[in-house]
């Protein structure tokens, strides 16, 4: 792209020449960073107060619908990697505790023989012995 | 609590020395008693248990106390506290039953460990160990 062409194109999109940088795969549209309505000044007098924008203002190429929302913010962080790690450690510890608990619970038991019953299910007598000698 | 932990860990590390708690005793019940042991007499007949609709888990050697307790409860609705006497008898019987079960386990465990010791000394199987 020649210098003259660059000047023409940047004028077309309302930018100064040094700020212009073409966006890849998008013709001559400039590569601009978006600023959401949440981050813009409330007290300024905008041409369009709903989206806090001025007439013919250059904006990013993408998603008009998202950008139109009043609380859309480019600087908001939805999740962070460090937090994900701590959550993962928490889950691993909890599941490990459950497995360990189950394992120990299977190992421990109260030292008793099964209950002695006088009759079986069909009503037949079962011979059991007490601890006294005859 | 301590028994539970010690037998649990003992069975974990030396499973052949500790009996399994869900199976009946395997050794001869009269071994070691010169005249044998006393047989336990059922308190009431099976037909009585059935006609009194005793649940399966209470058809044991405390069934008569259970029936007395339930009879009293029916008679004194809604003043269940009037049957505390019968309830006490029933629970005492259940506790004694539990103690005898623990004694049975202890006897089984000691015989098992004795058999194991004898086996290490050269005897072949449990029958020979008992008749030594």
Question: What attributes does this structure have?
Answer:
heterodimer, A: 134 residues, mainly alpha, 31% helix, rod-shaped, B: 132 residues, 2% strand, ubiquinone (chain B)
What this model shows, in words?
The complex is a heterodimer of chains A (134) and B (132). Chain A has 134 residues and is mainly alpha-helical. Chain A has helices spanning 3-12, 64-68, 81-107; one strand spanning 129-133. Chain A has a domain at 75-108. Chain A contains 3 helices and 1 strand. The model of chain A has no long low-confidence stretch (mean pLDDT 85). Chain B is an all-alpha fold and 132 residues long. Chain B is 56% helix and 2% strand. Chain B has 5 helices and 1 strand; from the N terminus they run H-E-H-H-H-H. The two termini of chain B are 36 Å apart. The A-B interface holds A 107-119, 123, 125, 127-134 and B 3-5, 7-9, 11-12, 19, 21-25, 29-30, 33-40, 42-43, 46-47, 49-50, 59-61, 63, 97-98, 100-106, 108-109. Chain B: Belongs to the complex I NDUFB7 subunit family. Chain B: It holds the Pfam family NDUF_B7.
Major sheet characteristics of chain B: none
Determine the structural class of chain B based on helices, strands and strand pairing.
mainly alpha
What number is the mean pLDDT of chain B? 89
Q: Which of globular, elongated, flat, extended, rod-shaped describes the shape of chain A?
A: rod-shaped
Spatial shape of chain B: elongated
SSE string of chain B, helices as H and strands as E: HEHHHH
Number of helices of chain B: 5
**N-to-C SSE series of chain A?**
HHHE
Note the main sheet of chain A. none
Largest interface: A-B, 23 and 45 residues
């Amino acid at each position: 792209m020649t210098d003259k062409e660059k000047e023409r194109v940047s004028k077309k999109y309302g930018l100064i020449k040094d700020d212009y940088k073409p966006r890849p795969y998008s013709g001559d549209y400039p590569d601009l960073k978006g600023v959401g309505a949440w981050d813009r000044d409330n007290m300024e007098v905008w041409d369009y107060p709903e989206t806090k924008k001025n007439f013919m203002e250059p904006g990013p190429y993408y998603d008009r619908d998202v950008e139109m929302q009043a609380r859309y913010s480019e600087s908001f962080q939805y999740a962070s990697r460090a937090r994900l790690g701590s959550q993962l450690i928490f889950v691993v510890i909890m599941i490990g505790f459950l497995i360990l608990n189950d394992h120990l619970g299977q190992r421990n038991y109260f030292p008793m023989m099964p209950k002695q019953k006088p009759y079986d299910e069909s009503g037949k007598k079962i011979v059991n012995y007490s601890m006294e000698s005859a | 609590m301590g028994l539970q932990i010690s037998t649990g860990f003992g069975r974990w590390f030396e499973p052949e020395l500790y009996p399994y708690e869900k199976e009946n005793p395997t050794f001869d019940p009269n071994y070691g008693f010169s005249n044998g042991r006393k047989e336990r007499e059922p308190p009431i007949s099976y037909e009585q248990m059935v006609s009194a609709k005793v649940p399966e888990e209470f058809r044991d050697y405390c069934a008569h106390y259970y029936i007395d307790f339930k009879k009293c409860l029916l008679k004194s609705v809604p003043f269940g506290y009037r049957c505390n006497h019968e309830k006490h008898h029933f629970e005492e019987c259940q506790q004694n039953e539990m103690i005898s079960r623990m004694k049975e386990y202890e006897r089984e465990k000691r015989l098992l460990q004795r058999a194991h010791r004898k086996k290490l000394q050269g005897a072949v199987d449990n029958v020979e160990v008992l008749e030594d």
